[in-house]
Amino acid sequence: MERVGDARGLVLGFVGALNAVDEAMRAAIPSLERLADVLGLVRSRRISRSGQVGTYSYTVHGAGCRFASDNGTEVDVDFAAEGSEIFDLWRLRWYGLSLPEPLDVTDQDMRTAVRSLQPLLAEVRPGWFSVAS
Fold it and tell me: What is the mean pLDDT of the segment spanning 2-28?
């Protein structure tokens, strides 16, 4: 059961880090109403595909963006059509491995942890999750 507790802490850490990224990006780019708007800014060439904003570097990819803090912790999300941030178990695992003290948990423990965090998290399609609004 401790492993599931570790996975639960990892998921909650990811959500906290995602919130910190959102706050930092919106503070640095006042025109950003939501994090997903970074895609439009890149597509309109108002910002570059990768760069530095405050203590975060970012790299836009396909339907999402990877953010890395100055300590190396990475938060990678895709954006749903309506603009919400979505993530899967792979992105949660990558976050855990990027922590200053890496944490590697199994997919099964991660799945159990994510399910235990409903209704904070919602499964938006099989294997993809979002922070419930």
Answer: 89
